Amino acid sequence: MRSVTGRLMLLDTASLYFRAYFGVPESVRAPDGTPVNAVRGLLDFIDRLVKDHRPDHLVACMDADWRPQWRVDLIPSYKAHRVAEERETGPDEEEVPDTLSPQVPVIEEVLDAVGIARVGVAGYEADDVIGTFTARARGPVDIVTGDRDLYQLVDDARGVRVLYPVKGVGTLQITDEAALREKYGVGGQGYADLALLRGDPSDGLPGVPGIGEKTAAKLLAEFGDLAGILAAVDDRKAKLTPSQRKRLDEARPYLAVAPKVVRVADDVPLPDVGTEVPRTPRDPDGLRTLADRWGLGGSLERLLTTLAR
Fold this sequence. Notes:
Elements: E1 8-12, H1 13-23, H2 37-53, E2 57-61, H3 69-74, E3 83-85, E4 93-94, H4 103-114, E5 117-119, H5 126-136, E6 141-144, E7 160-167, E8 171-175, H6 177-184, H7 188-198, H8 213-223, H9 226-234, H10 242-250, H11 252-262, H12 284-294, H13 297-308
Parallel strand pairs: 1-2, 1-6, 2-5, 6-7
Antiparallel strand pairs: 3-4, 7-8
Helix pairs in contact: 1-2, 2-4, 2-13, 4-12, 7-8, 7-11, 8-9
């Protein structure tokens, strides 16, 4: 990975094109009638993000493996409810709307032709790519995602924040440590422990039965982190209710593996890519062909104008 010293914007690309797909009418179509609502919606998102936040570096982070086997080995229920088809080799197929799947390769081609760095690494989710870029960045980082899991990366001291789309990307919730503490009672470092204690049905994480978000936050405030909570389970003088002590003790097998599943990796072998915001398209001819083929019109034109500034 090349050195990144200016403001870095990391896109959780799948999270954003899913939002674009559901937020832009399917009546937005290519000349041949193929839906391109996710494609055009994502281009509009990126245009607005670059226009409003002026990053120096921009990376579209991809899910090369949306359900890595090493996470499934630790917690078999991890994202199991999203599996559309199990495969003997390679990642299982994720359940994706029929009219979205064909748009994903188009999104990838367009991003490549524009010149926006697109990074996915075999065996890892986009979250892990984002975590590694964030760990290695030397300047401030804006993470754009609709996935709360990435709140664990928020770090005021390093200028790492999450831009969470509330409505499209026109309304973004700027999440720093103050915002996390106000809503969840923990900062960025504590969010992963909160998440694994609470559980997350959308990711197939069971959590600790009877330990909801508020209880988890109180335990973390009292004992500091997961290790402190487990030490308190063994300390009869620690201020735990009998039911909390019992539930946490019974959950030890889950709590032994959950941190590795929930915490994003920060050691992904990233490729050597240029991450600077492209001022001109990398492949103008190819981009023109894609624009005509898919009817990208004003969405692409606006993005290119914004990038050129």
